[in-house]
Amino acid sequence: MTTTAGDRFGVARRLLTVVLCFLAVGGCTSMSGDLADLESRVTDLGFRDVVAWQRDENDRTIVTVEAYTTVPRAYERSDIEKIAEVVWDTYPHEFDVVELALNGYLADTLPADDLLDLFGPRAVQPTSSTDSGIVAVIVTLSVFVLLMGLIVTFLVLALRRLERKRREHASQYGAPPYPGYWWPPHQ
Prior knowledge:
The protein is α+β, with helices and mostly antiparallel strands. The chain contains 4 helices and 4 strands, in the order αββαββαα. A 4-stranded mixed sheet has the order 1-2-3-4. Helix 2 links the parallel strand 2 (60-69) and strand 3 (97-102). The longest helix has 45 residues, at 129-173. The chain is rod-shaped. The mean pLDDT is 80.
């Protein structure tokens, strides 16, 4: 079975779609991986069903951690402080506010200044969310441009090869009598 140029373009389109999907997912993995690590550390403190996310709201970056105590009970101030300290000391991105929800209720909202007063300087050097976002965009665009260059190079070489084969057939059998005529004739 021979492959036509149309089939190659279809393969190239499918390949490009898959690559773009991987790039889109890859740009999001840094922060989601850090949030997953944060969830794991809070779970290690003895909480369950931990979910963490980050959002920007009114020019403030808010990190929210929702967790449940292992035994159904009212949460205590020490629970809030344990989770807040883990966020403060281990989450590697800048934030302005930490919201803590325990057992389905908003337990406390702590600004970064209050966390600094409670726990002192952060143990981890935070990166700006915008900085990591810009780096992710630059890396994604660079990989995209590189892949597009490779695909275009592949297509140009494939088309040149097809043209060379067409010329060889034309010189061997002569030109077909009219366009679309099956050529070379079967013998």
